[in-house]
Design a protein that fits this description.
Strand content: 15-25%
Strand order of the largest sheet: 2-3-5-6
CATH topology: Trna Endonuclease, Chain: A, domain 1
CATH architecture: 3-Layer(aba) Sandwich
Shape: globular
Low-confidence stretches: none
Mean pLDDT: 93
CATH class: Alpha Beta
Number of strands: 6
Radius of gyration: 14 Å
Organism: Terasakiispira papahanaumokuakeensis
Pfam families: DUF2750
Protein name: DUF2750 domain-containing protein
Order of helices and strands: HHEEEHEHEEH
CATH superfamily: Uncharacterised protein PF11572, DUF3234
Largest sheet: 4 strands, mixed
InterPro entries: DUF2750
Length: 126
């Protein structure tokens, strides 16, 4: 059962969920994704997106339907910044931030934009 925090975040605007996600990932020094013989992507033939969540719980809520076979996997901050976001940038894959089932839209940023915002937030913790 989703927590009160998750339920409250569902009602927030996309921009607010984005800001929350960046802050939470920086604070916890980790993000969450779905993994099934490689990181799960979403999208269509014209655009692919890498879904990322700020908490394990928020990723678990999405591990159903077409992603039911995927496992929720933690993404360490060093791997995220130094490798994953750079690979996604090279492959022109954008980031879908904090996807919520039954809500059609989520924040979408290029890997470069997300990388920049995350680094700026991490600087506040130094």
């Amino acid at each position: 059962m989703p927590s009160k925090e998750y339920e409250a975040l569902k009602r927030k605007e996309i921009k607010d969920r984005y800001v929350y996600t960046v802050k939470k990932i920086a604070d916890n020094e980790s993000a969450w994704g779905l993994y099934n013989d490689g990181w799960v992507l979403t999208g269509n033939s014209q655009s692919e997106f890498f879904p990322i969540w700020p908490t394990k719980e928020s990723a678990e809520v999405c591990a159903k339907d077409e992603w039911k076979d995927a496992q929720v996997k933690e993404i360490g901050i060093d791997y995220l910044i130094d490798e994953l976001l750079l690979m996604l940038k090279e492959d022109s894959i954008s980031i879908a931030i904090f996807i919520i089932p039954d809500i059609a839209e989520s924040a979408v940023k290029t890997a470069e934009e997300f990388h920049f915002d995350l680094l700026n937030e991490l600087e506040k913790y130094e």
